[in-house]
Amino acid sequence: MATITPFRGIIYNTEKAGKISDLVCPPYDIISPAGQQALYRKSPNNVIRLEYGLASPGDTEEDNRYTRAAAVLEDWTRSAIVKQEQVPAFYIYEMEYKVKEATRKLRGLICLVKLEDYDSGIIKPHETTLSGPKTDRLNLLRACKTSFSQIFSLFSDPQEKVAAVLARTNGKPEMEVKSSDGVTHRIWSRSDEKDIEVIVREMADKPIFIADGHHRYDTALNYRNEQRKAAGSFTGNEGFNYTAMFLARLEDPGLTVLPAHRAMFNLTDFHPQRFEDGLNQYFNIERIDFFDKRSENKDLHTVLDTMAHRADHAHIFGMRVKGEHSYYLLTLRNEADMDALLPAKSPAYRKLDVSILHHLIIDKLLGIRMETHKLGLNIEYIKDAAEADKRIHDNAAEIVFFMNPTKVREVKEVATAGERMPQKATYFFPKLLTGLVMHKLG
Question: Structural domain tally of the chain?
Answer without folding.
Answer: 2
